[in-house]
Amino acid sequence: MLLAYGAAAIAQTSNEPTDTERFDCRQLAEWERPDSPLEWFERSLWAGHCHVFQARAVRIGIDGVRTLALSRDIQDGIEREVARFLDGPPVFFERRGHIGRMSWSNGEPEVPASPAGMARHIEQYYRLSMGSDERIANRSAVRLDIEPLDGLRFGHRLWLDEHTALPLKRELIDDRGRVVETFQLTELQPPQLYQGGVVLDTSRTPPQQAWRAGWLPNGFLDQPVDTQTDQHDPEVGHRIYSDGLSTLSLFVEPIEEGRERLIPGLHRLGISLAVVRHVVADGRPMQVVAMGELPPRVLAQVAESLTWREASEMAE
Prior knowledge:
Order of helices and strands: HEEHEEEEHEEEEEEEEEEEEEEEHEH
Shape: globular
Structural class: mainly beta
Strand content: 35-45%
Largest sheet: 11 strands, antiparallel
Distance between the termini: 43 Å
Helix content: 10-25%
């Protein structure tokens, strides 16, 4: 069973500190072809971490059509992805990282590697099925249909390379059945399997904040990612939640004279929606922003559910 491979394939490396784990990507070449939708989904996650490639892509959304140049490399087990838009305003994205985990490890049982844990997790909230095979970017692809089991999240269609399981095309489908974004590779240079181990994220304790989400859709977990960056004011609180496919971001910051603020209500930011609220906490006006590719009513309920902890709770 493919799902068992994920946890078994993680091992500590002899030339790294004992708390550093890596996944040996060379194992992918030995794995059997997936034979179920869930196995295809997990394989695509491992493939996304373990292949090096360059590609051209197109993104079609409500905000128009954009073309991109993509590249992905791995150096000493650290993944590096670069995306550069080829039309419209010049935009350049770069991400460096490693294989993440599904949740913080704060006295919890051992958290499995993200691809293995994520596949098990989404099966509780989505129905996965196979569609008809197609041809994408001049490569044979298998289609994976992922439908939510409730009205609290969006659906997805994935077209996976039949040979590597790399995603070649993705459609995001809203709660009304409309395709709101298509992301598709148009040209893919032959991907190469990384001949080594990719670093796995270490277990970490979640940071303490004065606020928390009082309600989240079932399955959304607080993600162990670094949300504080040089681009954010230190007073801006930021947390990310995910069910394995859909992602929700929460931003909380004080409203001060001279600081830019958003108008309360529903906003569209690209393909994402954002709900903005202004509240008073501990006698101080605060701006709350809930943003993600989720139904507006879900974002509104999350934004309205925030509660603030007493100072005594923070000290515990």
